[in-house]
Write a structure and sequence with these properties.
By secondary structure, the protein is of the alpha+beta class. It is built from 8 helices and 6 strands; from the N terminus they run ααααααββββββαα. It is about 60% helix and about 20% strand. A hairpin with a 5-residue loop joins strand 4 and strand 5.
């Protein structure tokens, strides 16, 4: 009888862990709401003060991204494993800077567009999910899909964004692979650092 009690307790504990995290679509809706509100309240300063924009993107956007996982994906397993710890740290930091610059451009371009989120799909492995959304722009609709991973602290983090069928990480991966093949990994790190 005691063993049944322990099994039931285990499953109750497990189900609590599974539902402890927000659903990934709720996480994204709340994130977009937070960013949209911030933009509408600070539009002029964001457009005129590049340093303020950079700081705010780093505060608001990058914590919602899994920069380490994105770094591993864009480099590919072979390149990631060929690097030493120092190179990896430098690359992750440089790639984070690239993400900040990427979102700085999109943040100033955002003009209160409506976004419709669809229910999320569970990934093939536990802790992965995909959320589809549609940005409703005056010139038409744009499909934006987010791939997310649940981290060790039970938080969803975005590790890829696909805009109208084009994956952000796959796009960077192709560019980075070409650069590494021609000039090496240290050259890629330096070129990213120079742009930061």
């Amino acid at each position: 009888m005691n063993i049944i009690k322990y099994i039931i307790t285990f499953f109750l504990f497990l189900s609590t862990l599974i539902y402890a995290a927000e659903r990934p679509d709720v996480f994204l809706k709340e994130s977009v709401k937070e960013v949209s509100q911030f933009i509408s309240e600070n539009k002029e300063e964001l457009e005129n003060d590049k340093k303020f924009l950079q700081i705010k993107v780093d505060e608001l956007i990058t914590p919602k991204l899994d920069i380490l996982l994105m770094s591993k994906i864009v480099l590919g397993k072979k390149n990631w494993l060929s690097m030493n710890d120092y190179q990896r740290k430098k690359f992750v930091l440089a790639f984070r800077g690239l993400m900040v610059r990427t979102y700085m451009k999109s943040l100033t371009a955002f003009d209160g567009e409506k976004i419709a989120f669809l229910p999320y799909f569970k990934g093939k492995r536990t802790g992965l999910a995909k959320v589809q959304s549609t940005y409703l722009l005056p010139e038409g609709e744009i499909s934006v899909n987010y791939n997310l991973k649940l981290n060790k602290t039970d938080q969803w983090k975005v590790y890829d964004i696909t805009i109208d069928g084009i994956s952000l990480v796959k796009n960077y991966r192709a560019d980075f692979r070409n650069h590494i093949d021609q000039n090496g990994i240290n050259s890629l790190i330096s070129s990213l650092e120079e742009k930061n």
